[in-house]
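Recall from the previous chapter that SMILES is a line notation for molecules. Here it describes glutathione.
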Amino acid sequence: MRRQMLGVLAGALALFLAACGGQQPQAPATQAPAGGGLSGGAATEAPAAVAPTTAPAATAAPAPAGGAAAQPTAGGRLQTIISRGKLICGVNQVLPGFGNVDSAGNFSGFDVDFCKAVAAAIFDDPTRVEYRPLTAQERFTAVQSGEVDVLIRNTTWTLTRDGSVGLDFGPVTFYDGQGMMVRKDSGIDTLEDMEGARICVQTGTTTELNLADNFRQRNLTFEAVVFQEADPTFAAYDSGQCDGFTTDKSGLVSYQTKAANPADHKILDVTMSKEPLAPSVLQGDPQWADAVRWVVLATIQGEEFGITSANIGDFANSEDPNIRRFLGIEGELGQGIGLPNDFAARVIRHVGNYGEIYNRNLGPDTPFNLPRGLNTLYSEGGLLYSPPFR
Ligand SMILES: N[C@@H](CCC(=O)N[C@@H](CS)C(=O)NCC(=O)O)C(=O)O
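With both inputs in hand, we obtain:
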């Protein structure tokens, strides 16, 4: 029922976009040369690299051996955020499940919950966030210019982005991979069935680059129909302008709920890339990067300990020294990263542990029902693992 409603809304959106000319590809489709995959107009996903110049390195002095931890100076970005009284978080606004805004202007989703977690750690208040919606094209400039404090927006951690784009990535919050959506009645079952296909893809993404690589490796030609924004990209596919729509599998599942008729589409059983999605900050402010990193790890460690937003009160008198340190009941763990010692407790209390965040946004009770796959704890065969809180 909900899917149908989403479908109707997506249909209306598609009509609106068509009426406004928004479905026109922003760039001429690039024709793949025979036998060679895409080459012309070699896709570049990152905006011109800007050498980060800001961010005074506010590094806390190391704790003297055997003595009390040195009081860190909460300088740089963290101090700016504290003085401002809110976090500015770069997010998606068109990707239900990850980053989405409703008609009342409320943001929600898996990524959005990590913005809330950072705010909860700093302010003990998950609502102290200003969300800055960013397209794929806009996102890196927004970090480079300091417009956002942190980017938490289905962004893949790559060497180029870590290096020449000038970002620092936190821990992976979602292990993803690129997929391909086609119409069920297309007769397409594998990428090999897509020789000469028209494929709708958004520019400024790893997606665009991986598409070219995958088809080249398979010696297949294709025609990329490229858009700057995600909704027009999908609308073009949904209205039949393309044979396939490609993005991260998380994005495919999300966009399938927006299709005019979600049941008409399928996601091929192929993973075209590794897409480790992670938060990022501007390179050069190690304390701020540490703060974001350990907030994410707190959600994972919380799940490892079995501490949830519902049962955290039961741990107040825990005698387990690991849990006592984690919750800030004893020790001074937060100090070294400029956060209050109970920052992890604040995160769990207000936002929940990783499993709670996952289930709330993507789990069985949501329209996405995404199996956790690699996004389970290492103890359950997944890749989530927190270094020790000590
Ligand atoms: N993870 C990939 C893809 C991320 C991405 O931007 N995906 C698109 C398609 S689902 C998106 O979210 N677009 C939203 C927009 O640009 O407004 C990356 O980091 O490049």
